[in-house]
Amino acid sequence: MQLKKGSVMYLDFLVKTPDVAGKITRRKKRESTYIEYEYNRVYDPEKQYTIAKRATIGKQSKTDPVMMQPNQNFLKYFPDAELPEEKDRTLRSSCLRIGAYSVIRKIINDYGIPEILSTYFEEKDLSLFLDLAAYSIISENNAGQYYPDYAYNHPLFTPEMRIYSDSKVSDFLSSITENQSIGFLNDWNEKRNHREKIYFSYDSTNKNCQAGEIEMVEYGKAKVDTGLPIFNYALAYDTKNREPLFYETYPGSINDVSQLQFMIERAKGYGYKKVGFILDRGYFSKGNIAYMDQCGYSFVIMVKGMSAFVNQLILENKGNFESKRIHNISEYRVYGMTVKKKLYVTDEKDRYFHIFHSSWKESAEREAIESKIEQMTKYLKKSSNTVKEFGSGFERYFELYYNEEKKTFMFPIEKAGVIEREMDLCGYFVIVTSEKMTAKEAINLYKSRDASEKLFRGDKSYLGNKSLRVYTNESASAKIFIEFIALIIRNKIYTCLKDERNNLDKNPNYMTVPAAIKELEKIEMVRQLDNVYRLDHAVTAVQKTILRAFGMDAASIKDEAVEISEQIDRKVIKQK
């Protein structure tokens, strides 16, 4: 902590007392001896003698009378003196990037996250937890060995902004327990509004594990197969209030369809009753539909137009709505209509099938089919008169003819009916809902899950979480827990920027999360000769626009800078 004697601050290192003949004096006061420097002499005509002008430049060391503890005046009158502090200054950068940290800190406090976590963590552990979450957002990385590099040039939540080593980070991750993460999730969901009806966007992804014997890691069907064992990670997202609610992990061999019912039980356990689920086609099964009906939960499920159980419905209604303005949904550049029918033969309830058509989607899908057929045709022709077998993908679109004697492939003939049927279905998709609603209401609900999908993309692309690189179950669970907190924060950054962007006349490219963080990182504090950090320059117009999204302005940054400086001062300057 900085120590003040009047307005003089004493620094936390010793220097040799200046050897300036006739200019240095010592003045003892109580238990301290002060070093004074005569910086000028002024003649007083009334008293007719010269008066010495002196300034206190330090305090004599109690262990070595040749050394002294300097203050700001010493830096003023002896600017060229060698300071041993410069060796210690390498522990923290002379330039701190405070913009993104300040936004993250505000979001954390607005959500009350420190208060919830304080129930389960001691202060020093809680602060390191928050620093690791901020690190993963700002640096787009979650590797513990690089955390000290981040801490070197950023403000921190730790007391006196203490920088911990990568080994300390590793020990901390191993110390986090399941009870702490479960406790946070219970408290976090208890604070959510359970009286209004909300829709959960539930989605999952899988992650590779590159090291360690982790119990939940198994070989399964990876979305991007790198040959590594995986685990599955699922997230429940409140689309109405745009907040992540809870997460779960499960072994890589368990598929999404079978896991959904366990997630529904968790939602009930957290006290959510008026709930609907927005799901992608990966969760569709008769068992899951029946289970949601049994629990009294509604659902919204997306189905591609070429899926077997809806393509006939599309073809039956084709031409009835695609160009009629009454069916136009301009926000999404689609046309839509609604048909009521059973989802499957034994279904006990009527469902609502919302059929949509997009002309630009039709054009893109037709082009993709034409290109695929063209590439397949070229490959098949090159394979003529060779002994070769082709997979089901080729057999779907071509009749393949072979020379029975030589067992060689001869030539293909297109299955025109199959290709034309797929062409007819291009541009169509279907959303199935359990509750009666219009096509517009259905697509609005489904599109509200875009934020959760972006959350998953952000998790892998911008939080460095494509893989886990840990060796214990405890560290794996801890990283996932910290990642969830980071997702809550990053999601809030995304929604705030999106709302502010909608208020702007233009659509600037700096209002995305990565671009905004990059711009906020340019707000810097610089350490000056008196060892105090101060803002390096005024906040720019672009930065003000970004800050406005979070209810902040240039004054907020100035206040934040003062507080950061004071926190660092508590560490670098000792109490008298």
Summed up, what is this model?
By secondary structure, this protein is an alpha+beta fold. It is built from 20 helices and 22 strands.
Taking all Cα atoms into account, the compactness measure Rg is 33 Å
Shape: elongated
- The percent range for strand residues is 15-25%
- Report the uncertain regions: 1-7, 85-89, 207-228, 459-471, 572-576
Q: Mean pLDDT, rounded to whole units?
A: 84
Q: What distance separates the N and C termini?
A: 9 Å
Number of helices, counting only DSSP H or I runs of 4 residues or more: 20
What percent of residues adopt helix (DSSP H or I)?
Answer: 40-55%
Number of DSSP strand runs: 22
Describe, in plain words, how this protein is organized in 3D:
- Helix content is 40%, strand content 23%.
- It contains 20 helices and 22 strands.
- Strands 9, 10, 11, 12, 13, 14, 15, 16, 19 and 20 form a 10-stranded mixed sheet that branches. It has a 5-stranded antiparallel sheet with strand order 3-7-6-5-4. Strands 8-21-22 form a 3-stranded antiparallel sheet.
- The longest helix has 31 residues, at 473-503.
Short descriptors:
576 residues, alpha+beta, 20 helices, 40% helix
How do the strands and helices of this protein lay out in sequence?
Blueprint: E1 3-5, E2 8-10, E3 15-16, E4 24-29, E5 32-44, E6 49-60, E7 67-70, H1 72-77, H2 85-88, E8 95-97, H3 99-111, H4 113-117, H5 123-138, H6 147-152, H7 166-175, H8 178-190, E9 198-209, E10 230-238, E11 243-251, H9 256-269, E12 275-279, H10 286-295, E13 298-304, H11 308-317, E14 328-329, E15 334-342, E16 350-357, H12 359-382, H13 392-397, E17 398-403, E18 408-414, H14 416-424, E19 428-433, H15 439-447, H16 450-461, E20 467-468, H17 473-503, H18 513-520, E21 524-527, E22 533-535, H19 541-548, H20 554-572
Parallel strand pairs: 9-12, 9-20, 12-13
Antiparallel strand pairs: 1-2, 3-7, 4-5, 5-6, 6-7, 8-21, 9-10, 10-11, 13-19, 14-15, 15-16, 16-19, 17-18, 21-22
Helix pairs in contact: 3-17, 5-17, 7-17, 9-10, 16-17
